[in-house]
Amino acid sequence: MATTPAPPAAPPKPTWDPRRPEPPFPWLRPTIRIRLTLLYGGMFLIAGILLLSIIYLLAAQALNVGNEPPFKIVGGTDIKVSSHYCPEVASGELSLDEFNSAISTCIDHQRQAALDNLLSRSLLALLGLAVIAFAFGYAMAGRVLSPLGRITRTARQVAGSDLSRRIEMDGPDDELKELADTFDEMLERLERAFTAQQRFVGNASHELRTPLAINRTLLEVQLSDPSAPPELQQLGKTLLATNERSEQLVEGLLLLARSDNQIVERKPVDLAEVASRAIEQVREEAVAGGVEIRGERAPAVVQGNGVLLERIALNLVQNAVRYNVPEGGWVEVTTEAQHGQAVLVVSNTGPVVPAYEIDNLFEPFRRLRTERTGSDKGVGLGLSIARSVARAHGGRIIAEPREGGGLVMRVTLPV
User: Residue ranges of region Disordered (predicted)?
Assistant: First the structure.
């Protein structure tokens, strides 16, 4: 009896998207914490400016700037005045009217100096309080957004490998707790659906392996009988080829189910070596089809599973050889390390592929302009397996139509 495989985990989210360029000015897109800080600080700054303006106007009105002085000299003899701030009134050669005018001008000057001093000191105080307000707003924004940070971290862990993670937020029943509870319920449903799907694929594939192996053994024994008639020999060969195709389908399903899991045990793997091994396995088929395999493969070491990574290269190279032009075709396989990423590129000549059909190529059992079972070149799982393995390693695979026909398959993996 076949054993039930362990429930698989979700594939990790790709860490890098080569099709999405970096924004030219990242500082023009501030985080929500910075925006909240600017909002809090800006509101305080506007309120402070309004308050300062009101105080200034009230102080100016109380000091009666521009009005008559509170007193004036109307008469008297031997009046002597000494002033450090108003030296004009200290002159003894002024008439009474000139003396009163000098006093009024001096008082107005002192009132204006007092208002200017009040304004400058208030602006300095407002600047200091604005700095404190922005710092306080930044701290408060971080405290308010901390539940969102917890939700984000949990979502990142779920996208990485573990659908069993939950937020389980405590606290009052506010909007953030409602969001966290809704997210937990969604994760619960996703985990059940994903586990059920993967368990079905795994169990079905395991259950199909045994009868297919028995059928292959019986057919091989029958074909080894020299006394069997030619018709029976031909029928046995046909059935054996059909059985082999079914075995490839089952193995592909198993590999597809396994490759959707996270790669737990990672070891250094050189993509150049992986690509060379894949080429050696396909070289005989390429020679038979008149397809030239070329390309320079520079060292590009990644952390991952060597068997699964070799499956990516093998599937891509096999597809490039099988779906090629009848004569004078070529397949170019290159590897390199660039921008902290390891890149495997497989290009080939072949039929023209419309851009709108590129995404369909990665769907299981889909081929270009052929029926689901209308081709003897494979079981239709090669690119699906390659994409799943790439995702399991935190990378991605992109297909682009090549000018003149064929495809350019680019696999990008984190180093």
Answer: 1-22
